[in-house]
Design a protein that fits this description.
Blueprint lengths: L1 H7 L1 H52 L4 H15 L3 E5 L7 H8 L4 E5 L4 E7 L6 E7 L4 H15 L6 H8 L7 E5 L7 H8 L4 E5 L8 E8 L2 E12 L6 H41 L14 H50 L3 H32 L5 E2 L1 E4 H14 L5 E5 L6 E4 L1 H18 L3 E8 L4 E8 L33 H11 L3 E6 L6 E8 L6 E2 L2
Parallel strand pairs: 11-13
Antiparallel strand pairs: 1-4, 2-3, 3-4, 5-8, 6-7, 7-8, 9-17, 10-12, 13-14, 14-16, 15-16
EC number: 2.7.13.3
Subcellular location: Cell membrane
Keywords: ATP-binding, Cell membrane, Kinase, Membrane, Nucleotide-binding, Phosphoprotein, Transferase, Transmembrane, Transmembrane helix
């Protein structure tokens, strides 16, 4: 049921497509953020450890003997409260990128997300056969306060030149590092007291700027009580910085715009087809048809356009046929009138002149009848006529036509098989009367002796009127042609019988606008032709306007 509704509605299909598109784009952008942040987090870890790793490497390299190196490493491990191993380089497998970082005197950081443990590998420039291997399973204030000690341990070998050598190692640090006077730092009395006790101070700064939260580590300088070593501010890792959020937002909007264009493209293509067909129609070419794809509103539009094109073509062809037929039908009575007028001008016999006047009057009446038939046919053929459907008693229409026909003294037997008096059908009385009148008049013209009229409602809910006669009937191969305008048969139903070939065409168009059909076959009882028109007996009451 849902799939059928989506298939038949452009709005719901596009709306559902947008919902799916938003979900897919959101999922894709989430995965993209995770991938980007994984790389950013790795770079962040490496940038934080590069500087300290270099200083630790320099501290180990200063030790002349292996045992001294091991002792220094042991002291560093106790200071950081992290295990530090002095391992053979052959036991550590490094990738090409990691080897390049070691060669550039940078650290290699490996992070185990499942266990929340990091591993730092540090190269030794004077001892390429060994690495320092640090297991980081915790990072707290203890570890952060210990970081300045390694920097100070490096600077202590250059008394009086601390600032110069600090400048040399700055390039290895991702964050700022420098020496400042205590008075230039905004510290409270408690923090100053801790510095005088040779303790490091952590400064947290929460900012609404792009940098976000930062941490600075302030440590007293040995032999310089008025100066301190400052590491930082070190920005905390931001999982969604402005640049990333803006980039992901723009990228998601770009993907959504592409998706929306993909959803709208089929609709645009169908509209382009209809517009192209309309332009061709405007230029006079009615042969083009729009392909009908699916069952949605655009398919209905394409179907309506094709039906309209077929209808216009049919109207044009009918108009051409009507003009040809009218010119042919008018020629005979006009010629007779002209001939009669010439005879009147040349004849002196009063009785003969009266006879010619009567013949001219009959020809004029025939012209009036023909014009009336043509106007009725054209009205029914061109567009939608004005039909006022109402509940009518069917027997009243049938009885009225039977009485009017008997009043003409046709010398034919008119039999009415009347439906129940209470039987009502939805119809336009004027046009229904015209249908029965045309069918009965046609039957009277061609029957031998008897015409039968009947009507009612069938089991399928369709109303019907039926007119039968006992004449020669209509050959089966000619039955489809007799409803064409000005059509006449060559055998029994000849021109001598009268009429212009428009009566059955009018009946056919009325049946069409009633939403029904007209059929002809052989009467099973009388043996002649049987005409039956059917249409819906009940419908919503409405007035169909042009």
């Amino acid at each position: 049921m849902v799939s059928r509704v989506l298939k038949n509605s452009i709005f719901l299909r596009i709306y559902a497509g947008l919902v799916v598109l938003v979900v897919v784009v959101a999922a894709f952008c989430y995965l993209l953020v995770q991938i980007i942040n994984y790389q950013r987090a790795q770079e962040y870890r490496e940038s934080l450890t590069d500087g300290i790793s270099y200083v630790i490497s320099e501290g180990v390299s200063r030790q002349p003997e292996k045992q001294q190196k091991l002792d220094w490493i042991s002291d560093a491990s106790d200071l950081l409260e992290l295990p530090i191993y002095y391992v053979d380089a052959e036991r550590v497998e490094l990738s090409r990128t990691e080897k390049k970082r070691i060669a550039e005197q940078k650290s290699v950081v490996r992070y185990d997300a499942n266990n929340g443990v990091g591993y730092i590998i540090i190269g030794l420039k004077d001892d390429p056969k060994h690495y320092l291997y640090i297991k980081v399973d915790k990072i707290g204030e203890r570890q952060m306060r210990a970081l300045p000690i390694f920097v100070l341990d490096y600077l202590i070998f250059y008394p009086g030149q601390e600032r110069e050598y600090l400048e040399k190692i700055k390039k290895h640090f991702y964050y700022p590092i420098g020496i400042a006077d205590i008075k230039d730092i905004n510290l409270d009395s408690e923090q100053i007291g801790r510095l005088r006790q040779d303790q490091s101070v952590l400064l947290y700064k929460d900012s609404a700027t792009v940098r976000g939260t930062t941490i600075s580590i302030v440590s007293p300088m040995p032999n310089h009580p008025a100066q301190v070593l400052i590491l930082g501010p070190v920005p905390m890792f931001n999982w969604m910085p402005f640049q990333l959020s803006a980039g992901i937002t723009l990228f998601s909007l770009f993907l959504l715009s592409l998706g929306v264009y993909g959803l709208i493209l089929p609709l645009e293509r169908k509209i382009r087809q209809v517009r192209y067909a309309l332009n061709k129609m405007k230029s006079g070419d009615l042969s083009l048809r729009v392909p009908i794809e699916g069952t949605d509103e655009m398919a209905n539009l394409a179907s309506s356009y094709n039906n309209m094109s077929d209808h216009i073509q049919r109207l044009i062809e009918a108009q051409r046929e009507l003009m040809r037929a009218v010119s042919h039908e008018l020629r005979t009575p006009v010629a007779r009138i002209r001939f009669g007028m010439e005879m009147l001008a040349e004849e002196d016999d009063y009785n003969y002149r009266i006879q010619q006047v009567d013949m001219i009057d009959k020809d004029i009446e025939a012209l009036n009848t023909l014009i009336d038939e043509i106007m009725t046919y054209a009205k029914l053929e061109q567009g939608t006529p004005s039909l006022d459907f109402e509940d009518i008693v069917l027997v009243e229409v049938l009885d009225q036509v039977a009485m009017e026909t008997e009043a003409l003294k046709t010398q034919k037997e008119i039999e009415l098989i009347a439906p129940p008096l209470a039987l009502k059908v939805d119809a336009e009385r004027r046009y229904l009367h015209r249908v029965v009148q045309n069918l009965v008049g046609n039957a009277v013209r061609y029957c031998d002796n008897k015409v039968r009229i009947s009507g009612g409602i069938r089991a399928d809910g369709n109303a019907y009127v039926c007119v039968e006669d006992d004449g020669p009937g209509i050959p089966e191969q000619e039955r489809s042609r007799i409803f064409e305008a000005f059509a006449r048969l060559d055998d029994s139903r000849t021109r001598a019988s009268g009429g212009y070939g428009l009566g059955l065409s009018i009946v056919s168009r009325i049946a069409y606008w009633f939403g029904g059909t007209i059929q002809v076959d052989q009467s099973p009882n009388l043996g002649g032709a049987r005409f039956t028109m059917t249409w819906p007996a009940k419908r919503y009451k409405q007035v169909i306007k042009k």
